Each structure stands twice: as structure tokens, then as C-alpha cells.
Amino acid sequence: MRILLIFFTLLLYLHADDDLSMLLNDYKHESELSKITKKEEAGIIDIYTRHDLEMMQARTFEDVLKVIPGFHFTRTSNNLTSFEKPSMTSTQLSSIRLYINDHDMSSSSFGSAFLIWGELPIEYIDHIEVYKGAASIEFGNETSTVIIKLYTKKAKREEGGKVRLSADNDGSTNVDAYVASKMNDFSYFAYANKNNIKREEYENSFEDKIYKLSSDHSGHNLYANLQYKEWDLELGSYVKTSDSFLGIGTNRTPEGGDLEADHHYVHLTSKFKGDIKLQFSYDNASYDRTYIDPNGIVIANAPMINNYNIRFKDEIYSTVLEKKMNFTKHSLLLGGFYKRKKFEENGDFYDSANTFTYTDKLANALDMYSVYGEYSYDYDNSTKFIASLKKDYIQYDKLIPSRSEDITKLGIMKYIDDVKIKLFLTKTYSPTAFYQLYNPDNIPYKTNPNLDNIHITIETLSVAYKLNKHRFKFVFAENQIYDSIIYDRSLSYGYKNSSDKINYTYVELSYDYLFDADNKFSTILFYGDNSTDVIASPQYEAMFKLFSKYRKFDIYNEFTYKSAYDYVGLEMDPSYDYTASVKYHYTKDLSLGLRGENIFNSGYKQAYRGLDYAIPVVDQKLWFNLEYLF
Amino acid sequence: MRKFLFLLLLAPLLFSSDLRTEQKIYQLVIHSLVPKKELVKVWCDDDKKRKILNTLNGINSVDSAENADILLISKKENLQKKGMKFVTSYQLLEGKEIDILGGFFWQKGRPNILFLKNSLQKYNITLPESMQDYVEDEL
Fold first, then answer.
1. Does residue A184 sit at the B interface (CB-CB below 8 Å)?
2. Is A182 an 8 Å CB contact of chain B?
3. How far is B82 from chain A (nearest CA, A)?
4. Chain B residues in contact with A156 (beta carbon < 8 A)
């Protein structure tokens, strides 16, 4: 009997070892911050957990944007991050809103964060949530149909620090470092990044001369978070310089030119008893763009020029107040915010011979008042109804009439055993940015007071089914887009509202198989179509991802297929992107990694007007990566 | 004999899917640190942790630190209390109190468990061989 007991006890103790390390690993997955922050009521969600980002060896935001279903991540001819919905041209950038924690990163001039923050280094980001078909009411700020939320790492979980060094085969370098500590009620997290990224250079020939199409960029990113009890202070600063790629010249023959941009912000959040949250923030951003093209740049109301310099300066003051109320079956979110957005635009335009020179300047500002509420009702344990309403009042300092907009959302969430159904109907708008109201190409600058916001109706249905280790999801969405803003170079105002209604249909199917907490296989198929005659980007995409852990190795495989498309007279073949990474954990604190991007150089290519070939959005690259935790 | 039987009975509890992982970890750690008691009395200064303890088999959360077999400490001021202690943050470990047996805390972005050798020796606690990887000579 005694021998038997000792045997069982030994068995238990042996098990305890596996058990403890296994339990810690399970606990890490179970405690992912995304499980706390995600808002099921807000729309169709895609989540990239810290584990996912680490396995992928994601270095910048672009590494994640590339795998978000429902969009083709691309770049514009002037080297900015952009998106295309399947079948559509580049989407209105203000329809995708980026947050870092609760801070809206959008600039006043562009109504978007992606002109500055698209290449953001993300080592300080814990996880990313993407909400599609959102009304944005839950996030207490300006509206958009897609919300991307980046959540920073938290001091209470980091306690210590990290250094990450990366370099690629083209000579790019990237350094990330952070430290974090918690002392009783006070904690801090501080992060710094410096990067110098070399990109593949292309050429364009015109009149027997070769012009380089360069898109290198460099910069630094600083972030700090200080927390004391219920007070949370965030400071962020991102500075970057990037080449102008194809520029905006008629013949795509740039000779120099660049973008120098920076954005600094401070955000203070305080939580009070009674589930009240109060936020103050201030943003200061500038965007200084120069294009030089010896063969001419065409802008409205001017002869052909060769040098184009435009400078935007933004300031945003924001206050948000929210209160949540929870009852047995009902919950209510009430909130309001006030924003003051200032915008200043300066331009210098001249030709090489200085026969034409023109300097222009214009400034305006707006006050935005918004009140919103969201009510949800738990009809029973498996059914929830959601109704949201938001009213925005926008008052310009001058020249543009005041306007107001309504946003409404109705939703049902239904759980039937392991099936989760979400149905949302949303009526919203996409705010018009200052740069569209003042077309920078139209000199002297003139206001276009009649340019209306884009109005959108969205119907989304998602059905998710969980069966043991299998996860299935089906998403169907219909959008009706009214008053879409299009650019017409022949008009002095440039931007105008289209009277045509555009219908957009989106279908997504996904399947995940979870081998265990560290190993999973994921497949996503999606399709998009629109009611216009133009198919300007791939309609179909299939993506396969495999996350695997073997002993001390983390292995990630990503394969993406995009269908053929025609754009600006170029017939584009289907694309196949294979990206993979391997990380070796030498110790618990030291790891070495390799990440190959667009490994077969057959990934997605973007066609550009005025260029007779297409250019890969992601370069073929090999990144070396060293990470040390201390 | 009773101890062995008790540990034997504990095994299925550790693998029970009814418990969340954090509960399983506390159950395993507390019974490993106080192996001689079938019912371990724990004093805890954190409400959330106390709720977790109250769900565990063979563990009883008590109101008085003097009556406890082990103290689960989250607040610095309670390090003064006498008795074996297990802490929930890395800073508390740095106090180098000889009565601190170890801690379960977040550090470097991951959950960690650590036992301090000197403290274990003082209380004559021998952890299972297979848990020795978590025993450190010093911080």
C-alpha cells in the first residue's frame, strides 16, 4: 500500500512540473488583455493578440494591416499607407479611424491618422482590435465605419524592460526599447523607437532619362504612460521623414522631394466613482510635403510648376465625458464630447525658371459638439438588443456653414449553444476633412462650402460557431454609400460629391483550428463587389496562417492569395504572398529571430496612374531580430 | 499517510476544467507550500484574490493573520505581519523578508512563479523535485 501511495505521489509531483509550466502558459493566454478590452457590441471584431504579434514578429503596424481581412493594404503614389476594400479604389481614409488606447490619432487636416502613423513601430503595443461595420459610439469619439484600436502594454504586467534590435538585408535598422515599473499606486511605462527603413528602389524613364522612385523612411517614436490610482497620463510623439515615391508629377519623374511629419499628443484620463470617465487631450501635428518634378506638376489655376511645397499644421483640443449604468437587464452608456480642431495650410508653388511663383496661406477651425448614448437590453440569457444614437454638431470658424449629423445603430446578439449571431444596422457618415474642403491644388485657396460628408448605411451579419477546437465564422455585409467624394482635376474645387449611390457587398468565411494554446491554423476567405463598372482592386482573397511552437522555436507561416484585377489600363495577375518567421528562445529572456516578407516576391502589386508597371506593396525582405528582456 | 492521500485526492482537482487557471495555480502553490495540512488557512489582503481562494478546495480564507497558515500579500504594509508569506508582486519580493517564500506575479509581460530558497529552508519546506526550477537562491 505504501509503495503504491509513493508511486502515486511521485506521479502527481511529476505531473506538477508539467502542470506548473503548462498552467502558467495557459494563464498567460487566458489573461490576454484583449479578453478584457474587446467590445462585442461594437461590430464585427478581428483581434490580434500579443501572442499573435509576437509569433508574427510584427515590427510595424503595416505587418498587421497586411493581414486584416476585408481590406487590401496598399500604398499611395506619394508613399502613404492606404486601403482598398475588395473591388474598390483607395478608401476614404477618414472612414478608418485609429486609436492608441482611447486617443484618437486622426489629424484635423486629413481626418485620418494614416498619413503619419501608418508605419508606426508597434513593439509597445500589446494587442490590436479591428471593428468593422462600427458606429464608433462605444469608443466615445468621432465616427468612422472601421475602428482600429491599438492597446499599449501595461506597466503592471511588464515590470522590467525590453530591447529589440532589428535589421534587414537592405540595410534597414530598427531599435525598440521600453522600461516599466509599478510602485504601490504609481506605475510608469516608457518606450522609445528609432528606425531607418530602406525600401526597394524603382525607376521610371522619360525622354531618355531615368528617374529613381525611392520610398525610404526614417524616424522615431516615443511614448510614456504614467498611472496614479485612477489617473492615467499618456504622452506620445512620432516624427518621420519619408521619400515621395512617384510624387505627383504628370510623368512620374520625381527628383527629390519628401515628407517631414510629426505628431505629438498628451492624453489624460480619470475614472471616478459611479463608472464615470473623463478625458482631456491635446494634439499638435505638422505635415510638410515637398514634390519636385522637372517634367511638370499640374495643379489647378496655375501654369505647369516643378516645385510644390505644402505645409499643414493641426491642433486639436478634446474633452470626453462618459457614464455607464448597469442594471439587471439593462445597461446604458451616456456620453458627450467637445473638440476644437484647428487647421492651417501654407503652400509655395513655383517652376524651375521662377517664371511662376505663388505662396498661399489659409487657416480655419471647427468646434465639434457631440452627445451620444447606447442602450442594451438582455432580453434573456442568450439574447441582447442594442440601440445607439449619436448627434454631432460641427461649427466652422468661417466660410463653411455649420452642419449636424446623426448616427444610429441597431443590433441583436444571439447565442444559441455554441453559435453566436450578431446583426447590426448602422447609419453613419464619414467626416469631410479640411484638405478636401480646401483643395490644396486649387490656388489661391478657396473654400468649397458645399462639399458634403459621405453618408453610409451598413448592414452586417456575422455567425460564429465553436465546436471543440474548431472555430467557424461567416460575415456578410452590405453598404450603401451616398454623396461619395471623388476628385476631379478639371474642377477648381477638385473634390466633389457624386450623385451616384454605390452599393458594396462583402462576404467573409473563416475557419480556425486550435491545436492548443500555442498552436493554431487559420484560414480566411473574402470577397467584395461594388455596383460601379470599375473593379479597381482584387475581388477575392484567401489567407492561410499557421502559428506553431516547437520546443524553443516559435514558427509563423502566412500565405495570401489575391485575385487578378485591372486598373488604369494594367492587367494585374493574381498575387501570392508568402511571409514566414522563426524565433529561437535561447533563454526565457533572450531570443533571436528571422522574418521573411514577400519571400517569393510574388505578393500584391499596386498599379499607379502614369506608370506602365505595378510595384509590390511589400518588399521582398529578410529581417533579423534580437530581443532581450531584463 | 494522510498527507499522501490528500495529495492524491488533489490531483484530479488540478486538472478539473471547472477551475480557471489562476485558481489552479493558487491551489497547487498553496498546497505545495503547506503540504501537511488538509485544510490550509490563508489570510489575504486583496479582495479579488480572497474571492479566488474561497472557491478552492482544501483552502480556507481567514480574517485574522495570526490564525493563518500562510499569508497571501498584495500590499507592502502587510509585509510586517508575522508568518509565512507568499506575495503577488515583484516589488514585494524585493523586500528580502526572510518570511517571504515566493511570489506569483506579472513581470516582463508574462506570469511568473518564484520560490526563495532561504525562506523555504527556514520553514523546512521541500518542494517537489519537479518544481525546483522555480526555486531561486536570490532575486
1. yes
2. yes
3. 21
4. 106
Question: Quick one: CA dihedral A298, A303, A305, A311, positive or negative?
Answer: negative
What is the spatial distance between Cα A63 and Cα A83, in angstroms, rounded to a whole number? 14
- Taking the C-alpha atoms of residue A333 and residue A387, their distance in angstroms, rounded to an integer, is 11
What domain count does chain A have? 1
ipTM of the complex: 0.87
If one counts every other C-beta atom within 10 angstroms of the C-beta of residue A611, the result is 18
| Structural domain of A153 | 43-629
A23 domain residue, yes or no: no
Which tens digit of pLDDT belongs to each residue from A157-214? 999 999 999 999 999 999 999 999 998 889 999 999 999 999 999 999 999 999 999 9
Interface check A7 vs B, CB under 8 A: no
CB contacts, 8 Å: A158 with chain B: 106-109
Q: Is residue A38 less than 8 Å (CB to CB) from chain B?
A: no
Instruction: Give the whole-angstrom CA distance, residue B41 versus residue A106.
Output: 54
Nearest-Cα distance to chain B for A5, in Å, is: 7
CA separation for the pair A65, A63 (Å, rounded): 6
Domain membership flag for residue A291: yes
Give the distance from residue A23's alpha carbon to the nearest chain B alpha carbon, in angstroms. Answer: 6
Q: What is the pLDDT of residues A192-205, one digit of tens each?
A: 999 999 999 999 99
CATH code for the structural domain at B2-136: 3.40.50
Residue A517 in domain: yes
How far apart CA A253 and CA A218 sit, in angstroms, is 23
- Asked if the structure places residue A19 within a domain, the reply is no
How close A262 gets to chain B, by Cα (Å)? 29
Please tell me the pTM assigned to this model.
0.92
Q: Which residues of B touch A122 (CB under 8 A)?
A: none
CATH number, domain with residue A332: 2.40.170.20
Of B14, B76, B106, the CB nearest to A19: B14
In order along its 139 residues, chain B shows pLDDT tens digits of 454 444 444 444 444 444 589 999 999 999 999 998 989 999 999 999 999 999 998 999 999 999 999 999 999 889 989 999 999 998 888 876 678 999 999 999 999 999 999 999 999 999 988 788 999 987 7
- Interface-testing mutation among A5, A7, A10, A27, with chain B (most B C-beta atoms within 10 A): A27
Q: What is the DSSP letter of B139?
A: -
Domain ranges of chain B: 2-136
Q: Which three cell numbers stand for residue A151?
A: 492597446
